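Data card: per-record layout.
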Amino acid sequence: GVAAYFVLRNWTALALEQLILYWLIITFVGDVITAMSMEAVAPTRVTIGPGDRKFDADYPSELAVVVGFDEAGQGQVRIRGETWRARQAEDDNVTLESGAAVRVVNRDGLTLVVAAVECRVFGA
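The structure for this 124-residue chain is written out next.
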């Protein structure tokens, strides 16, 4: 913007009002070009919503340890040192007890969906 002002001021015989107008136009166009190029490099639009992150980066088929579950299939599991709210997968009919190993099969928001793993008990 400032460079455009000095170029126009030194190389033309325009009045001050015209120089200011041209300077504003050149500055505006430069700002628009800068904003468009920044949008191309780092988009500001979110393409996936909150809670809809790709599951690949979360806990795909990772083992977790049951902290506690009720008869309705709701409870908590411990995975990577963190305690998560969890629910049992609908097609899993095994009763989950504290210390049992489960495999994460999905994630629904902040709730992990888990299924029992055969013959593995931790901390028993």
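Known properties of this structure: Residues 2-41 form one domain. The mean pLDDT is 76.

See the next section for split statistics.
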